[in-house]
Amino acid sequence: MSFxxxxxxxxxxxxxxxxxxxxxxxxxxxxxxxxxAAPDWYKDLDYRARVVxxxxxxxxxxxxxxxxxxxxxxxxxxxxxxxxxxxxxxPATIGWPVQKLATIVTQDSMIGVTxxxxxxx
Length: 121
What we know:
The chain is an alpha+beta fold and 121 residues long. It has helices at residues 3-17, 40-43, 45-53, 55-61, 98-102, 107-111; strands at residues 24-30, 71-77. Helix 3 crosses helix 4 (55-61).
């Protein structure tokens, strides 16, 4: 089984078993500042400190207003450990081929500061 198919299998199973009331939203921090493709705000020390202390507020300011019942987990990347957010698949996109799904995933959604919920089939 390839890395890609392992991810797809895990995500499908996770999505199928997760209910709205126990939903978890992940946000990434990047402890390594040499990531050239990362947006400037992502490397900002103020952002990093605030997203740990005030995750819900920072996400709301960025346009992502999560329900109070959603747990927010902040993950910090290190030299030895890398994390990636796999955005929740919007219901309207169930059945889309992987290539079409890839067109709606953004860098911000993989950091965890946006969601794909607004996508219409």
